[in-house]
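pls design
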């Protein structure tokens, strides 16, 4: 899952991004509304965590732009106000969910994951394929009943492949979904991660390389 965090309180924004990355999400961070509009015009995001009171371009206008473009991106709006009328107004603008500050980080994660599931075709909460069982919420992976310990990026790559339901996923698509924009697009990080993931999942191999196209399970 790829997430954009838009928050002008830099310490909070960076803390949220760090926490989401630990949950195997690819996260980009910006600190004002103008930068947010620039990012959503370039990258495809599953979820935007959007502070309402932003400098340069107000969060409401960022949300309206996402709706206007007809993007499948889901918006979780944050605000320091817990007033009911503010929440209603935010939802009417086009936000998919609303979370007042201060918030429990566990609730933020749950809401981001719930919104992320709504950006694509509905899938069961636990993904199963080729003897692999992946639970995104519990961050657990099992292969034929054996628990497999994965690093966050390995988990993210496996989740993208599992969600594709047998379709081929290109290295570029994996890079977009599992890494943030600071990753060098010419790096071999995808190939190395897939190799490590294959080794950890064990025999027989379940991740198939499709020459010139990508990978599938």
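designed seq:
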């Amino acid at each position: 899952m790829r997430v954009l965090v838009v928050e002008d309180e830099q310490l909070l924004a960076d803390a949220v991004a760090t926490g989401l990355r630990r949950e195997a999400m690819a996260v980009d961070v910006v600190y004002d509304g103008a930068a947010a509009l620039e990012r959503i015009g370039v990258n495809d995001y599953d979820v935007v965590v959007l502070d309402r009171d932003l400098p340069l371009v107000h969060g409401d206008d960022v949300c309206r732009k996402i709706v206007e473009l007809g993007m499948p991106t889901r918006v979780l709006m944050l605000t320091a106000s817990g007033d009911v009328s503010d929440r209603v107004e935010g939802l009417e603008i086009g936000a998919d969910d609303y979370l007042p500050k201060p918030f429990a980080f566990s609730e933020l994660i749950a809401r981001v994951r719930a919104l992320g599931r709504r950006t694509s075709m509905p899938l069961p909460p636990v993904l199963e394929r080729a003897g692999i069982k992946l639970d995104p919420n519990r961050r657990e992976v099992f292969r034929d009943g054996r628990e497999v310990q994965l690093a966050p990026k390995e988990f993210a790559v496996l989740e993208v492949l599992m969600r594709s339901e047998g379709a081929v996923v290109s290295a570029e698509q994996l890079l977009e979904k599992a890494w943030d924009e600071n990753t060098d697009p010419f790096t071999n990080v995808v190939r190395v991660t897939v190799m490590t993931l294959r080794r950890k999942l064990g025999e027989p191999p379940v991740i198939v390389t499709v020459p010139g196209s990508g990978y599938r399970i």
